[in-house]
Amino acid sequence: MRFRYKSVLMLIVVLIGVCLALGVTYHLYTHYFAPKSVVVVDGNLTINYLNGNAFKSRKDKDLNFSVTNNGEQEEIFYVKLANIYASNATYNLQGNNNDLALENKLLSSIVANQVTIPAHTTQEYTLKITNKGKENYSGELIVALGSKASSTFGEIIIDNSNVASKPATTFKEVATTNEGLIKDETEAGTIYYFRGAVTNNYVSLADEVWRIVKINADGSVKLVLDNVIDTSSSYYDGTDFTYANSLIKENLQDWWNITLNNYSDLIASSKFCNDTLMAEDNTNYAAYNRLSIDYIPNNICLGQEVVASIGLLTADEAIMAGASTSENKDYYLYNADIKNAYYTMTAATKNNTNFYPYVVDTSGALNTKTVGTQLLGVRPVINIIKNISATGMGTKEDPYILLDI
Questions:
Q1: How many Å apart are CA 270 and CA 253, to the nearest integer?
Q2: Rounded to an integer, what distance in angstroms lies between the CA atom of residue 391 and that of residue 137?
Q3: Which end of the chain is more exposed for a tag (fewer CB within 10 A), N or C?
Q4: 178-237 residue pLDDT tens
Q5: How far apart are CA 150 and CA 121, in angstroms?
Q6: Distance between CA 311 and CA 381 in Å, rounded?
């Protein structure tokens, strides 16, 4: 009996010891090792960094955060990485029903700009960090309320332009005169695009000259570089011709990191249109029938939308600007200094082994006979955030200069 009593007593003592050890371990983990949630209130927004907003690691890491709009009106916010120390790490931002899917090298920059959140809404996001090397990386995640300008860049452009309700020429024709800014009512909202030999759509940014393509339905402004970059690129490597996995996307991102990274607070994370939808007869892409047969360019994306900070023109945008299958050296996309044809994000034709995107050649014409593995020019496209202002009149001598947030 005494032996049994001692055994039970020892078991109780052991259990108490285990419980105490677990309690101490839990206390140490939660107070010293576990990432702590950080909650920040910025105006009507409450930002909850579920894993904290400062990070340091050698392994892959997920940073989860939520944004709550407590106000009565829609708000905007931006996501930023700061004080980054990393040599071979990348990030991928996803969230809000996958309306964001942004990725880049891990460096100090704006990750996403002008992200909207409706009133009385909570949106959840995850920033996934992948470390391809063995070195430590560190930095800080910052989410903050965006600013609102009293007069937006888009509004300034409209005020300084001759706005027409329709183009003066058909889309089957080249546009060789200044047709001004065309207003287009779409399912997504009102879009304004420049057409023809316009002279008031110049922008100076990052020591580069840009041309305004259009004012998007959300108020952001699409720009195209007035030239091609120094690096030529094929569109794809002969296998996967989607833009998301393309070689040209890699070259654009490298150019961004060198040229535009310091201006990321002005550039929106926008949806670019990679139109690779097949036609019903499965012989050509739908865009070929729409653009080369029916001559009906569209301001609404009918293909896959790619959320990114930098991309390319679509063939639809080139046609609305004034291009056709004929030479045109009198519209704003033509630049005599461009000595190489350049790719668009729109698929034209294919055969059993090759993919042929729409290409703008050195005469300003669109063609569909260039295989996507050929080295061609790269002409970047970006979108400027809605809530930014500008000085200047948009002419070559007095280009728009964007004002800081």
A1: 15
A2: 40
A3: N
A4: 999 999 999 989 999 999 999 999 999 999 999 999 999 999 999 999 999 999 999 998
A5: 25
A6: 5
Residue 2 covered by a domain: no
State residue 246 phi and psi, 5-degree precision: -85, 160
379 and 243: one domain?
yes
Please report whether residue 298 resides in a domain.
yes
| Same-domain check for residues 100 and 192 | no
| 188-190-194 Cα angle (round to 5) | 120
For 258, the domain range is 154-402
**Residue whose structure tokens are 């019903």:** 280
Question: Per the domain annotation, does 285 fall within a domain?
Answer: yes
Q: Which of 145, 170, 187 is the last residue of a domain?
A: 145
Q: Which residues of the chain have pLDDT under 70?
A: 1-35, 96-101, 147-150, 404-405
CB 277 within 8 A of CB 302: yes
Distance CA 262, CA 115 (A): 19
Query: pLDDT tens digit string along 302-359?
Result: 888 888 999 999 999 999 999 999 999 999 999 999 999 999 999 999 887 889 999 9
Residues 190 and 100 in one domain: no
Q: Tell me which of 87, 117, 145 is where a domain ends.
A: 145
Q: Same domain for 375 and 328? A: yes
Question: Sign of torsion, CA 364 367 369 372?
Answer: positive
322 and 226 fall within a common domain: yes
The arrangement of strands across the sheet holding 109-117 comes to: 54-57, 137-145, 75-85, 109-117
Q: Do 382 and 266 contact (CB within 8 A), yes or no?
A: no
